[in-house]
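dumping this here before i forget
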Amino acid sequence: MDEMSMAIQKTMTVEEFEEYANLPENADLRLEFIDGKIIQVPSNAYCSQIAALIIAALVNFVHPRKLGHVTGEGGGYKVAGARLAPDAAFVSKARQGKLDRQGYNSVAPDLAIEVMSPTDKDSDLEKKLKKYAEAGTVAWVFYPETRLVKVHNPGEPEKTLGIDETLEGGEVLPGFTLLIRDIFPED
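structure:
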């Protein structure tokens, strides 16, 4: 068993995780930390493309209006004691004027986007959704295989949107709309 496998299986403190995540040999890894465990977050080109399309739509809405910050999969956040790296995220300027320049951002995002790849585990997603809800973060989960989006607003029932529906920004991004069809490229 290699060092990474041993580290993933071992329960650790958040301080130990941050030390581990900041090692030079781990710089290119996407790591999350939930309930004392490290989760390495793999992806694939198709899911990354979907995340890029979502980020482009968010940036095109957020940037001209100077609403805040949009980050990609490399942006990690401190969320209800966990360290999460959503595929895309938005933090309003009202909540954080400037993003942290090192480590996991100290303010949880207003909106977190997760794009489920075939290697993602439902149990890990459930843990993330719980942490997002604790932090008051809205979560949009995109399912490429079924071409569905599930919207998780803290304190509200989950909402599922199909390919012919429109995702709306709600209270987090009033006026933002996104056709689900535009996010899932045709095969």
